[in-house]
Specification:
Layout: E1 11-18, E2 24-30, H1 34-47, H2 52-62, E3 67-75, H3 81-94, H4 116-126, E4 130-133, E5 140-143, H5 145-149
Antiparallel strand pairs: 1-2, 1-3, 4-5
Helix pairs in contact: 1-2
């Protein structure tokens, strides 16, 4: 057995695939060893399978079906891994792969559109404060939590 090659902080682009067919279902990136990234995906699929890729992995585990992780490309430290990931996702989708990726790749959620319901849920979660009543005129008004802490919730104007 040969010694493993240490790549340092290079980014690896990988695909999670059906086994044994090796049909790609998800493309991702990591600076970890691929076996460690696969183990992390499997842990998440058991604990909190909210994303489609983790629900897919959880289903495979329940059915006692194997999946594999396949190295696609290495991007040197400081290189443009976002473009590489996006290129692989585009290429595999063009080749007919039914990928579980929610976006077109890269950091964050480029290409992802939140539903109106999801936007409302996010807005409610970050909206802190409460409705206050003006001690002068009795009108109600909204104040942020930090304004209330500063004592700026007594008057409406």
């Amino acid at each position: 057995m040969s010694n493993p090659v240490i790549i340092g902080n290079a980014t690896r682009i990988y695909a999670l695939c059906e086994f044994p067919s090796q049909v790609p279902r998800y493309v991702g990136k990591t600076i970890q060893a691929l076996r460690l990234r696969m183990a992390a995906h499997m842990r998440t699929s058991r604990r909190d399978p909210r994303l489609p890729v983790h629900r897919w992995l959880a289903k495979r585990q329940r059915e006692d079906r194997q999946v594999c992780i396949k190295w696609l490309e290495t991007v040197d430290f400081g290189g443009d891994w976002q473009s590489a990931e996006s290129r692989w996702i585009t290429q595999l989708r063009n080749d007919g792969a039914n990928l579980l990726n929610l976006t077109n790749g890269g950091e964050g959620l480029p290409g992802h559109r939140f539903s109106d319901g999801h936007k409302a849920k996010i807005a409610a979660a970050i909206r802190t404060g409460s409705v206050c009543a003006c001690i002068r005129c009795g009108n109600t008004f909204w104040r942020k939590a930090n304004q209330i802490k500063k004592g700026q919730a007594k008057f409406c104007s």
